[in-house]
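Query structure, 318 tokens:
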């Protein structure tokens, strides 16, 4: 029997790539999304796929998607710009939405995988971040709508595991990039790619010495599937441990796009983490996982997508 998987947030950046990977692995997939930040264009290519179904609905209300063997809970605004615009919705999907998704897993005796985040570590005082680190999060700052929703969802996931015996997994996802990222979601890679391709200044926030570690989408999704296939109930970091300053990232984008754009420094947003790099010892040991695609290769692989997105947007504006 072909396993059936529910993917919440299935029309989003991560969710849609996860749907592709599950279908390729022989699953049948039901994707749900309210299209707040997800887009139908991300799953357009799956329309005629017999094993794929899409339901446009709000998971903050109880819903029925039929019997499933797996629940991959990926619904949430995820870029800082998006979650700050949709603050209350972000808190709702990371509480009510998670509870509804967990209830579906419980009812179906399905395995549940929650998409958590490196934001659980906040502005980390431990570096690199291991899963045992409890984090340094401002519970009332502008990022708290996302960080605390994800932390609450982790707590809820563990509670469903401990109290209701649900077979749960938690992945802590670090910065991920690649095709299908929204051009205007405000994250650093789409911003820099868009600005470089348009010949505009690259906006580096602060002095650009803050760091991030960027994982290419296919590596990331491979980590999700391996974790789903493991027996680990506690969180596992999935991210690329190669760390770059944001200024360095800007220069790489300029080189790969061949752009003559300049760098312009702008104000650093409040509570912007100063450093971020996953310790992936646990993923390496437990899952035999590590990323294969470095930043330069991944940016090159994303270039056509960003070029087309910039051209399409220019055509709409004209
Ligand atoms: N950033 C930047 N310029 C931009 C967008 C983002 O310098 O146009 C910085 C941002 O301040 C942060 C880093 O790049 O330090 C990563 O930001 P992003 O929004 O991609 O994700 P985060 O890791 O903060 O969730």
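Result returned for the query:
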């Amino acid at each position: 029997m072909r396993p059936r998987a529910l993917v919440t947030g299935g029309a989003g950046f991560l969710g849609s790539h996860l749907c592709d990977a599950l279908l390729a692995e022989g699953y049948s997939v039901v994707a749900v999304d309210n299209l707040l930040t997800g887009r139908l264009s991300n799953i357009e290519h799956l329309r005629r796929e017999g094993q794929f179904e899409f339901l446009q609905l709000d998971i903050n209300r109880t819903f029925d998607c039929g019997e499933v063997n797996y629940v991959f809970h990926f619904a949430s605004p995820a870029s800082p710009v998006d979650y700050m615009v949709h603050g209350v919705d972000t808190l709702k999907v990371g509480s009510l939405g998670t509870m509804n998704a967990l209830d579906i897993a419980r009812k179906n005796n399905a395995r549940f995988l929650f998409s958590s985040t490196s934001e659980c570590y906040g502005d980390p005082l431990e570096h690199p971040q291991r899963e045992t680190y409890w984090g340094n999060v401002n519970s009332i700052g502008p990022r708290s709508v996302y960080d605390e929703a994800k932390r609450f969802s982790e707590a809820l996931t563990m509670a469903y595991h401990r109290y209701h015996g649900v077979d749960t997994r938690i992945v802590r996802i670090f910065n991920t990039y690649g095709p299908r990222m929204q051009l205007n979601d405000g994250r650093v890679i789409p911003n820099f790619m868009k600005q470089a391709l348009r010949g505009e200044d690259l906006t580096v926030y602060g002095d650009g010495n803050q760091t991030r570690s960027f994982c290419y989408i296919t590596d990331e999704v491979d980590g999700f599937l391996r974790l789903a296939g493991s027996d680990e109930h506690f969180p596992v970091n999935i991210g690329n441990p190669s760390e770059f300053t944001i200024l360095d990232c800007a220069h790489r984008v300029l080189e790969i796009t061949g752009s003559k754009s300049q760098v312009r420094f702008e104000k650093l947003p409040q509570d912007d983490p100063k450093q971020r790099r996953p310790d992936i010892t646990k993923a390496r040991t437990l899952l035999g996982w590590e990323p294969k695609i470095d930043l330069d290769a991944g940016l090159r692989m994303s270039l056509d997508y960003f070029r087309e997105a910039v051209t399409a947007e220019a055509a709409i504006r004209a």
